[in-house]
Amino acid sequence: MKRPLSFAHITRITQSTMFLPLAPVLLVQARRTARNTPRLDPATGAETGVTTGTEPAFRLLVIGESTAAGVGATAHAEALPGFLADALRRHLRRSVAWSVTGKNGATVRRVITDLVPTSNGSAPDLVVVTVGINDLIRRRPLKRWAADLAELLTALRARYRHAAVLVAGMPPVHRFPAIPQPLRMVLGAQARAMDRIMREVAHEHGAVHVPMDEAMARDRRLFASDGFHPSPAGYRVWAHDLALAISSPAAYAPWPPRPVHPARSAL
């Protein structure tokens, strides 16, 4: 498993003219954070499951990076897929069949090339995407970040034509306990810029963008021991917030959108 931060990746951030005065401090903090952050394994156990409830089951696919892979939890049933399925069961009042395809350290490009073609969600009703933190750490230029997201959503739309797509927003990196200031401020500012782009690209591709509640980051119990990934309690809270958004009728807008014809002028 890769460390969540690396000296090489943070070095690229300090090359920005805006942050040059902070460069010495940022580099020291990046080294220290990479050295001291514990390495956590992805969740284990079954990558599919079905909740109790009435049939037919609502089909859920979670795809993405380390939070899809369940880093910070011991089993997928106690990570985002399992908790989200259970929350949806309560909101939708029917059973939920869930599956997960995640890769720790995956960027959006890696999700496109490696995970979408092999995803094990058979004709899902909903696809939940968790990406961004690795693109942040690797300092993906914002224009390429936008293009990568657009390509990912296009690929998901092509593979799962009848599924709704939800994009989980960037985490509040500016509040991560594992990252010291001012490094946390620098990464947090970039994460917020990426989240704004994520919201715009999702809207353009008929997906639903759900921002992560900053209040989550104020509760240390919602972080795993690395101070970077969610704990099982954090996954549960996050899943609850996503389920509320998914249960909204806006999450199931038709795709592609119907063309809007201008009204004809009266003769």
How would you sum up this structure in a few lines?
By secondary structure, the protein is of the alpha/beta class. The protein is 40% helix and 11% strand.
Features:
267 residues, alpha/beta, Rossmann fold, 6 strands, disordered C terminus
Strand content: 5-15%
Shape: globular
Strand order, largest beta sheet:
1-3-2-4-5-6
Count of domains:
1
Element pattern in H and E? HHEEHHEHEHHEHEH
Annotated CATH topology: Rossmann fold
Strand count, sense and barrel status of the largest sheet are: 6 strands, mixed
The total beta strand count reads 6
Assign the CATH superfamily: SGNH hydrolase
Rounded mean pLDDT score: 84
- Could you name the CATH class? Alpha Beta
Going by helix content, strand content and strand pairing, the class is alpha/beta
Question: What distance separates the N and C termini?
Answer: 69 Å
Count of alpha and pi helical runs: 9
CATH architecture: 3-Layer(aba) Sandwich
Protein name: SGNH/GDSL hydrolase family protein
Pfam family, one: Lipase_GDSL_2
Domain SGNH hydrolase-type esterase: 62-237
InterPro entries: Ester_Hydrolysis_Enzymes (IPR051532), SGNH_hydro (IPR013830), SGNH_hydro_sf (IPR036514)
